[in-house]
Amino acid sequence: MFRTGEDWFTDKWLAQQLSWTAALALLTLVVLFAGLHLLRRGVGAPRYTGGEPAARSVPRFERWELGARLYHWGNLSFLLLLVVSGIALFIPASLPSPGVSWLLVHEISAGLFIFGLIAHIVAAVWLSDLRSMWFARSDWRDFKSFARYYAGASHELPKAGKFDVWQKIYHTSLILLSTAAIATGVSLFLNAEVLTSFGHPWMRWQRLIHDCAATLFLLVILGHLYVRLAKLNWPKLRSMLSGTLTHAEFDAVHDWRRWQPPADDAPHLEKKAQHKREASVDRGATSHG
Ligand code: HEM
Ligand code: HEM
Fold it and tell me: What crossing angle do the helices spanning 200-229 and 165-192 adopt, rounded to 10°?
């Protein structure tokens, strides 16, 4: 699993780096995931049941504000830079030099990623309805429906709010893995730039955790990529570009009782206000249909 090396101070052989074969083995889990998903879909597509149709008769709803879309695609570009420069550091001399050091490219893209993340958290707290991305009691019931579907015991899946339980699990894993990658990355950065010097064992652990967090991060993003590029999810892919969902696309997989997005042609301020309370209905709060 790890590449070992003789420790300079203790003369012991200790784990120094995640081995690239272990990293590759972890990444192939995504192929397994895609295979199982395709197999289950091949035997029977799910039927989305329950829920209420949209009560507002408008042609389109706004799913993503411009800021959310900019963050999503901007974040993708920072992460691409992080992955490429990360591979160059993980397997030295594996990629041609870009003219500056790969370490500098990695540090700058990490800085952009952290800056984007801070802006995202501020915007999420200030502008969006945090409850849409947080777990509700109904998610456990939904999770069991998904488990029954993937076990081949049922065809029925529940209609979701703004995000279904898998999207919430995915987002939570991004929070945990980003925290691990950033916390260990800060130690590595301070040490690499000789701004401070941590003890040898501390640095060894930071490197090992950073390797594992980065690999798992890539794994969940590749899983996300597979799901989001699948043909059945093309309306959602379009929504991440245009920001909108049609009435029919809403009714196909969403439940009006759990998510009441604003009409796309509503005035700007009205849309902002509705985004702030769009998931409130799930908790029995006043609905604004
Ligand atoms: C404590 C940390 C975080 C909080 C409070 C948070 C909150 C949220 C919320 C509430 C949404 C839904 C917004 C909506 O309804 O449109 C969201 C979406 C999203 N989150 Fe996070 N998030 C956090 C961390 C992260 C991390 C670490 C990443 C990626 C590395 C991330 C990437 C995204 C993306 C790409 C979206 C969809 C686009 C958007 O709405 O901006 N988030 N987040
Ligand atoms: C080429 C790469 C990518 C594609 C094609 C893609 C596509 C999409 C699409 C279509 C959605 C909207 C789903 C919906 O409306 O329900 C979405 C949502 C989201 N994306 Fe991406 N994405 C990519 C890369 C990333 C990256 C790099 C991150 C962050 C690390 C990320 C994090 C998220 C999050 C947190 C959401 C909201 C929750 C979810 O839908 O799972 N995406 N993505």
Answer: 150
